[in-house]
Amino acid sequence: MPLLAQGQNRREALAVADNWLKEVGLGDRRDHRPGELSGGEQQRVALARALVNSPRLLLADEPTGDLDERTAGQVFDLLQRLHANYHLTSVIVTHNMALAARCTRVLRLEGGRLTQSATVH
Prior knowledge:
The chain is an alpha+beta fold and 121 residues long. It has helices at residues 2-5, 10-23, 39-51, 69-85, 97-100; strands at residues 57-61, 89-93, 107-110, 113-116. The chain is 43% helix and 15% strand.
């Protein structure tokens, strides 16, 4: 939809969307409806949709919040790979401190103020 809204023709938009679905590991799920996808698959579709216009900034609000620990780790692995491969600036909001610890920079919101935590990498 984002590409169609920008005026790209349907065939080209579908080709780009297919490429992004493959990039997030869902090329074989193209024709499935959201209700037929797992929570992790839905999060990966959301990433593909967010990246289809080749943004320089990725904003992810609790991208693993509703997922079990294993699936959350897989989605976070994907986020890190996409971040590195596409040279994104990524801002990820999470309550999961184990995942936050995998980031290169961590800021905490405490009492309405941002404080910097120790850099992990």
